[in-house]
Amino acid sequence: MQGGCDPGRTAAVREPLTFEALIFDVDGTLADNEELHRQAFNEAFFACGLDWRWGPGLYAELLQITGGKERMASYIGRLRLSELETNALLRLIPQIHDSKTRVYQELVELGHLRPRAGVIRLMTEARSAGLHLAIASTTSPANVESLLRASFGGDTLHWFRAIASGDVVSTKKPAPDIYNLALTMLGVPPQRAIAIEDSAIGVQSAKAAGLFTVAIPTLWTIGQDFSAADLVLTSLADPEQPLYAVDERRIGAKFLGVEQLATLHSAALRMEAIHA
Ligand code: XBP
Ligand code: MG
């Protein structure tokens, strides 16, 4: 053993993490699955004898209304029908939506959807670091479960300490309600959690709940206004699918991990304290 002391030698001391949980949105964030939702709506319209057809352009617009039932109600409003016809169609919504959910789950269960780059890696890393995982989604718990089962594998569902989704809140995103519920279920205050979202509406919801929010848009949402997000990246990325150089420079790494989140989150808390 070599003797002697080196006063310049310091052990790298790891600061405790300033957050305890990662809260993931589902549609568009865990997987790029809005096209499946769109196809399921159209198949349900056909099965219910309606000649509606939501093309990709119209669907991108309709995504501004969160929740499938609410989206259909908004579309019916655009048709400018008589009050009688409008009310008759509005009454059909639960039935059409049940049909849409059945078709969507069949499509998901074909198993062609892959998790977005970096999602499983970041979840695995977070769990190893002792962080909690949660879900805050507009879609139904049954849809969340089908996606996790079909595209993420058997036991992934058990990775989540809290799943807040669907109609359990009265006001959907961009209202903060679903994130507030996820935080309550986790027992974690908003300053100690991070949200991951793919849409501007989702970012608004998470920010309104007081969360540090990372946005990873898809082609469905890329044109939206993400200025409220704390960080916008093309994806969470992976060693095999690294970030573009401009994103890499922003976070100082080829993919987003717990270490980068720790640096960004603690810096944001310090800034908040300065401006408080
Ligand atoms: C995105 C949505 C969802 C789906 C439709 O949800 O807007 O409404 O498009 O789902 P997320 P339902 O919060 O996960 O991004 O038809 O089941 O409502
Ligand atoms: Mg989403």
Overview of this protein structure:
It is elongated, with a radius of gyration of 21 Å. The mean pLDDT is about 95. About 45% of the residues lie in helices and about 10% in strands. Strands 3-2-1-4-5-6 form a six-stranded parallel beta sheet. By secondary structure, the chain is an alpha/beta fold. The chain contains ten helices and six strands; from the N terminus they run βαααααβαβαβαββαα. The chain has helices at about 35-45, 55-60, 70-80, 85-110, 120-130, 140-150, 175-185, 200-210, 245-250, 260-275, and strands at about 20-25, 130-135, 160-165, 195, 210-215, 230. The chain binds xylulose-1,5-bisphosphate (XBP) and magnesium ion.
Strand and helix layout:
Elements: E1 21-24, H1 34-47, H2 56-62, H3 68-78, H4 83-109, H5 119-128, E2 132-137, H6 141-152, E3 160-165, H7 177-186, E4 193-197, H8 200-208, E5 212-215, E6 231-232, H9 245-251, H10 258-275
Parallel strand pairs: 1-2, 1-4, 2-3, 4-5, 5-6
Helix pairs in contact: 1-4, 3-4, 4-6
Magnesium ion (MG) is lined by residues 25, 27-29, 198-199, 202.
